[in-house]
Amino acid sequence: MTSPTQYDAIILGAGAAGMMCAAVAGQRGRRVLLIDHADAPGKKILISGGGRCNFTNIGAAPDRFLSSNPHFAKSALGRYSPADFIALVDSYGIAWHEKTLGQLFCDGSAKQIVVMLLEECAKGGVALALGHPARDITHADGQFRLNHGAQHASASSLVVATGGPSIPKMGATGFAYDLARQFGLKVVEPRPALVPLTLGGEETLFRSLSGVATEIIARAGKSAFREAALFTHKGLSGPAILQASSYWRHGDPVAINFLPHAAPGWLLAAKRSQPRATVRSTLAALLPDRLATTLAERLSAQKSGDEARLADQPDKALTAAEGQLADWRFHPNGTEGFAKAEVTAGGISTDGLSSQTMQARKVPGLYAIGEAVDVTGWLGGYNFQWAWASGHAAGLAL
Ligand code: FDA
């Protein structure tokens, strides 16, 4: 066997975090090998944000990230902020805009972000090896050794940046967890996040609303999100639901306020102003027609049928109906799983990592960054910001 090519650092995964880390370390003079089993780098970046890459969020505060240790992400996020990434994007003349809720997108194409990161890697002399997974990874005498394709490589540092298993058809794997376990790091049970929820049983009838969208407040656990929800042929989706899904646990309800704009007492006010209207017609003025019909039919508080005039309904029943519409409990029977999840929650436990450098405490030279780690952002550019920030932190430490 030929002797391995020697590097200072080998980075596994040429995604968002891996490319950032490689560029930073390379530009600091480190000899870096960046390996990906895919035939092209940054595939998730290319499909992100509908092809325009929602590359950061100007509101990326640490409380918008989930982790078993809510403090872990603070250091890296604090040292590499959205403004830092925006400065990089600006230095490449990439035009961008804020869409909504602090979400920044390329005006043109996500490809510009990948080209920028590759250019940054090239500036640092990073060697890029595509098309083969890393195999036979060992660690002895302060050196990590591995094979990729027909090549052998060794380095004193190894960075795990292979992401999580969401969207396996794009080459996503649970490889990071296998590697973590090989080196004795704990893994927090990975689960699909930012994922549509499925409805069954009695709630199956809501699936007939497939395609209907409306602004709601979705609540799971202690977290609430006011954005659009979308009924699908399997259950519930749309940004508000995706956000809530990250906090949802099997067996829990998801509470929906269908009328976030309505002032308290709106149904009684409607009874006074339009006594001949029905609950259905009143709802239809505020919500998509099919949704109004389904909700009116199912309002358990309505004793006298959904076509009864408001004037004929007791105030108490209307107050109860209003309460139900503001706190409608769905009981999802699951999610659409990793196949449809935008990210993976859980992952390599932060317990064993330095929040400053992302280095494993017990395995000097081993680092984990990006989605592989148990840090998961909200929808809207947060996950890329974590990838950039954690990649940057490790890149400075290599
Ligand atoms: P990432 O998944 O980017 O990279 C991991 C790399 O490792 C991949 O290139 C993969 O091929 C490689 N790899 C995996 N296993 C390997 C193995 N065994 N050997 C070698 N290489 C291996 N976030 C956001 O902030 N804004 C957005 O607009 C979107 N949009 C979006 C859309 C869709 C459809 C998805 C699925 C996800 C998003 N995200 C997002 C989430 C975002 O894409 C994600 O959080 C980051 O890409 C994570 O960056 P990483 O570098 O950690 O992993």
Topology:
Blueprint lengths: L4 E8 L3 H12 L4 E5 L6 H5 L6 E4 L7 E2 L7 H6 L2 H10 L4 E3 L4 E4 L4 H13 L3 E4 L3 E7 L2 E6 L2 E10 L14 H8 L4 E7 L3 E2 L14 E8 L2 E9 L3 E3 L1 H9 L6 E4 L8 H8 L5 H6 L4 H10 L16 H12 L1 E3 L3 E2 L7 E6 L17 E3 L7 E2 L4 H16 L1
Parallel strand pairs: 1-2, 1-10, 2-7, 10-20
Antiparallel strand pairs: 3-6, 4-21, 5-6, 8-9, 9-10, 11-19, 12-15, 12-18, 13-14, 13-16, 14-15, 16-17
Helix pairs in contact: 1-5, 1-12
* Low-pLDDT residue spans: none
Strand fraction = 25-35%
The CATH architecture assignment of the largest domain turns out to be 3-Layer(bba) Sandwich
Considering the protein shown, what is the CATH homologous superfamily of the largest domain? Answer: FAD/NAD(P)-binding domain
> End-to-end span in angstroms?
28 Å
What are the bound molecules?
dihydroflavine-adenine dinucleotide
- Count of all domains: 2
CATH fold-level assignment of the largest domain: FAD/NAD(P)-binding domain
CA-based shape:
elongated
The beta-strand count equals 21
- Output the CATH class name of the largest domain: Alpha Beta
Helix amount = 25-40%
Query: What value does the Rg take, in angstroms?
Result: 25 Å
User: What is the typical, i.e. mean, pLDDT?
Assistant: 96
Which class of secondary structure composition applies to the elements?
alpha+beta
What does the largest sheet look like? 7 strands, mixed
H/I helix tally = 12
